[in-house]
Write a structure and sequence with these properties.
CATH class of the largest domain: Alpha Beta
CATH superfamily of the largest domain: Vaccinia Virus protein VP39
Number of helices: 16
Shape: globular
Order of helices and strands: HHHEHHEHEHEHEHEHHEEEHHHHH
């Protein structure tokens, strides 16, 4: 039996009990979409809301097992306290959550629609119910997604909120629970800033955050220890993707603690670039190659910009301009690969790989052999023959996995030892501030 059917049965049983005892039944929050009402992605036309369809389906089901949300949670290396919730949390009225979201002063997007929150929880359902990872929620704001995750069975949610305005309500919710929610005044996107010394929240070092939460390092090949959920800020979306990919390849910042998975909304234009194929010389770029090489990238859902509450100086959805299609925010799962690191690709030389990819794809119509010969004259042809690649192949036609194989071959080649990229690597390392 699915986790969703079980949860709905619990709701139905509690409702019948309340009616028989004279108590007031739990009221469902309105499911009507405040934004993009005619969007076909979730509900539309004369279709019934998803939650109502599930309740009707449930009424015809028999012999279903009761799922007790107050069951003692399996331990997470001794870090997770037991649950003690008997009632589902009310996500609140959409109008009230919109009002709370609009109190934010900076440019930011919020999830206030219960349908979108439920959709995200659906994609994490097996992970939530089986307690596979700690959930980091970036900038929860009014807490609609926070409550939905908890209602879906999340054993441990860490709400990283950067705005002080939203902290009191989130902390009040935390105090009502028994350890499955922890609220931290922290901005995930400001973790590990360049430089050293003391700093004030919401900026923070990853080491301090993880120590505070009691999360320890695990081997790279272990299961995902943390899942990060949120919306990338459009102000520095691409810069943040670069910062994260540098950290991933060197196992710094959050990736020091294992294969941290990202489940994030990113702009459609950036998703298109991240997943572009070789030969698409306009979209196929170094950042996308590095992410494809490092992670399994899965598109979970597309949602129109208008479905999110946006706070901006000029009002409206504040959609960034683009030469390419950019009508949606894309919910994308990026899971680091277990086999990313090998004997030839390690955290010690991964910065060299990153710089190699950036230099090769700076000119995507250039011949790869010419780039290789510029690093080690006369070696390009030998390497391409070894990898069975055409001698006249463009750099923009090489697959991510082929770039990885090329790098590993160069690492084993005596002709490339001590002969390339070191000045660029040194400069890049000095400009990357992770703790």
């Amino acid at each position: 039996m699915s986790a969703h059917s079980s949860r709905l049965l619990v709701f139905a049983v509690r409702t019948v009990h309340c009616q028989s005892s004279g108590a007031q039944p739990l009221r469902l929050a309105p499911l009507a979409r405040a934004y993009s009402i005619d969007s076909p992605t979730l509900t539309g036309g004369s279709q019934k809301p998803q939650a109502i369809q599930k309740l009707e389906k449930l009424s015809n089901s028999h012999n279903l097992t009761h799922r007790n949300l107050s069951a003692v949670a399996s331990s997470l290396k001794g870090q997770c306290r037991p649950l003690s919730r008997f009632d589902f949390l009310d996500v609140g009225a959409v109008e009230e959550n919109i009002k709370k979201a609009l109190s934010c002063r900076g440019l930011r997007r919020f999830i206030v629609n219960p349908d979108i929150a439920s959709l995200i929880a659906d994609h994490l359902d097996s992970d939530l119910s089986e307690n596979r990872a700690v959930i980091f929620e970036c900038n929860p704001g009014p807490g609609v997604l926070t409550r939905t995750l908890l209602n879906s069975g999340a054993q441990r949610v860490v709400a990283l909120e950067s705005e002080k305005t939203f902290l009191p309500d989130l902390q009040a919710l935390e105090s009502r629970l028994d350890g499955q929610l922890e609220v931290v005044h922290c901005d995930f996107f400001k973790l590990d800033p360049i430089g050293k010394g003391p700093m004030k929240p919401p900026a923070m070092y990853t080491e301090k955050l993880f120590n505070h939460l009691g999360i320890t390092e695990v081997p790279w090949t272990a299961d995902v220890p943390v899942k990060v959920i949120g919306i990338f800020s459009q102000r520095n979306e691409r810069n943040m993707l670069w910062k994260l990919v540098y950290a991933l390849y060197e196992r710094l910042s959050v990736f020091r603690y294992g294969r941290v998975e990202l489940v994030m909304f990113i702009s459609e234009k950036e998703y298109t670039k991240l997943t572009a194929n070789p030969g698409d010389l306009r979209q196929y770029q170094a950042l996308g190659v590095l992410w494809q090489m490092a992670c399994d990238i899965q598109l979970l859902h597309k949602e129109p910009w208008s479905s999110f509450v946006t706070t901006s100086k000029h009002g409206g959805p504040a959609i960034p301009r683009s030469m390419f299609t950019n009508d949606h925010l894309c919910l994308v799962r990026m899971t680091p690969r277990r086999d990313l690191f090998t004997d030839s690709l390690t955290t010690s030389n991964s910065a060299t790989l990153v710089m190699m990819i950036k230099q090769c794809l700076a000119k995507r119509k250039a011949k790869l052999v010419d780039r290789l010969n510029s690093w080690s004259p006369g070696s390009g042809q030998k390497l391409l023959k070894q990898l069975e690649l055409p001698e006249d192949i463009f750099t923009g036609h090489v697959y991510p996995e082929e770039y990885k194989q090329l790098f590993q071959a160069m690492e084993h080649s005596e002709e490339f030892l001590q002969s390339w990229l070191y000045e660029e690597i040194l400069e890049n390392t000095q400009n990357t501030g992770f703790q």
